[in-house]
Amino acid sequence: MKAADATVNVSRTALPWYREISWPQWRVLIAAWGVWVMDAVDFLAITFVLNDIAKHFSVPLSTASLLLFATYGVRWIGGLMFGSLSDRIGRKIPLVITLAWFTAGAVLTGLSWSFASLAVFRLLLGFGMAPGFSLGATMVAESWPERHRAIGIGILDTGWGLGAIGAAIAYDLVYPHFGWRGMFFVGVIPALLLSVFILLCVPESQAFRNGARSIRTPLRDNPAVVLFRRYPGRVSYLALLMLVLCFGSWPFQGLFPTYLKSLSFEPIAITWLTMTSAVGQVFGFFASGFIAERLGRRAGISVMLCVGALCVVALVYSVNQFLLAECFAFLSGFFLVGSSGIWGTILTENLPRDVRASGVGFLYNIGVVGGGIAPYIVLSTVKAANMTIALGIAVFTIVAALAAIVILRSVRETKGMQLSDIDAGGH
What we know:
Elements: H1 2-14, H2 23-44, H3 50-56, H4 61-73, H5 75-89, H6 92-111, H7 115-129, H8 131-143, H9 149-173, H10 175-182, H11 188-201, H12 206-209, H13 223-230, H14 232-262, H15 267-295, H16 297-316, H17 322-337, H18 343-349, H19 353-384, H20 389-407, H21 419-423
Helix pairs in contact: 2-6, 2-8, 2-9, 2-11, 3-4, 4-7, 4-19, 5-6, 5-7, 5-19, 6-7, 6-8, 6-11, 8-9, 8-18, 8-19, 9-10, 9-15, 13-19, 14-19, 14-20, 15-16, 15-17, 16-17, 16-20, 18-19, 19-20
């Protein structure tokens, strides 16, 4: 019997990693990936038209940048509530709800009649888009084999890069003909098709089926309450880590198109540079899982952050040399933004199943509050200190990267851990 088991194990290790993933497991990843693509398209569209919105509603650019914070500022509430619902009724239906919610929020953004209404619709969009990544990462973590879990979550995160490419293409093709409002309608038909695919083709998480709760859970046993009661220390340092990580990537992600516009770049040049960065993100997200499996979770993020921050500095000071800027745009996306492909792995591997969706939903989205406020802080600092936008992006990116590396020392290394050990309460 032991010899037979050894033979099976040897045959499995001889297979390429992707051959070990079943078709139902691939369908889970495809669904989660598609939601993350649409999440990125609907959110990042606004980073291309902040100047247009500021001019249309006669508000300062720094005030318009608060729309990013309006979206991100409420996501932790949506992440916690949707996560708690998912920990009680399953992962699949909440994933469809969040897709429909943020798609409607994007459409309402395009229909807004005042800056106040626009801000309200961005708040609603943020609440609904909150669990887009956290539910997907949870589903993949609970469906894929342990030794390929980081790879699956890294591939999931490529959806953000593809969404960024989609937003850049929309800016090139839709914006010139339909203006800034048209940017917020491009996701409607893909969202409808994806919803049908999830409902008909995606299985519920096996881990959830093995231990489902009743939706009528008493307040004390609600996953959102249990998360803070049982794991306050873990929640605290992971929340701080996510705040710093998200803050560090958004001076580049949120302000790079605005910086290029301030230099009077043509839309086609802005599209090429941002799309090149997005392509780098896709490759970085994909590679991040393999980097995390080789170097470990903490070392993988640290290396990617260091290289990425240096590439961002090089990029903002080389934009007038187009070919060189294209190179650094790719590398910035690959290393800095691509490092976030490991975030979901750290979060899912640090939380047991009963609070996993609640925890990942809360922690990931409390982190993005840092990303939402970063553009405003950078622009306000630039104005107050009479700095250039390039210097502001460079300084805040480097400082945040160094701070994140320090905080990572407090996070346990989870490479090779079984989810069953975490579910049983092991530290």
